[in-house]
Amino acid sequence: MKSSPPLTEQDLAEFATALEETKKDFKALRQRYGEVRDAFTQRAEAQAKITQGHLPKAELNRLKKQIETLEETLENQLLSWNNLKEPFWQILRFVGLGLVLGWFFRGWFGS
User: Fold this and answer.
1) Spatial distance between the Cα atoms of 11 and 31, rounded to a whole number of angstroms
2) What is the arithmetic mean of pLDDT over 49-71?
3) Do 70 and 101 sit in the same domain of this protein?
4) Do residues 71 and 98 share a domain?
5) pLDDT for residue 42
6) pLDDT (tens digit, 9 = 90+) per residue, 64-87?
7) Average pLDDT over residues 21-39
8) Coiled coil located at which positions (predicted)?
9) Are residues 36 and 61 in the same domain?
10) Do 62 and 42 meet the contact criterion of CB atoms below 8 Å apart?
């Protein structure tokens, strides 16, 4: 059985940094979850008021605009840059690496 090398101070510092980043990401995720949950609740309440009927036209228009705004908020929460940042950079990194390797092999083996 292979034994792993002993941990260094740098390894522990990197782990602590990664742990802090994960903590911040989790806190941001929890906050986004609360915002999305509140928006869903507010949208459901507005839709319930609309379906009850007998509302003045001004109130009906206000509720419809509120629903549109809440739906935009929900869409923005689901498609934010923070959610797409990591996959974007991974794709960019591996596509770039693939291009470099392709050019290298083409030059090496000639075609």
Assistant:
1) 30
2) 81
3) no
4) no
5) 84
6) 888 888 777 777 665 565 666 777
7) 83
8) 12-80
9) yes
10) no
Q: Say yes or no: 108 and 68 in one domain.
A: no
**H helical segments located in the chain:** 9-52, 57-78, 81-109
The answer on 92 and 70 residing in a single domain is: no
Q: In this structure, what DSSP letter does residue 56 have?
A: -
CA distance 8 to 12: 6
The CB density around residue 67, as the number of other CB atoms within 10 Å, is 17
Task: Looking at the structure, tell me whether residues 73 and 107 fall in a common domain.
Answer: no
Residues in the chain: 111
Residue 110 region by backbone torsions, left for phi larger than 0, else alpha for psi between -120 and 50, else beta? left
Higher pLDDT, 94 or 9: 9
State phi, psi for 95 to the nearest 5 degrees: -65, -45
Mean pLDDT of 13-22: 85
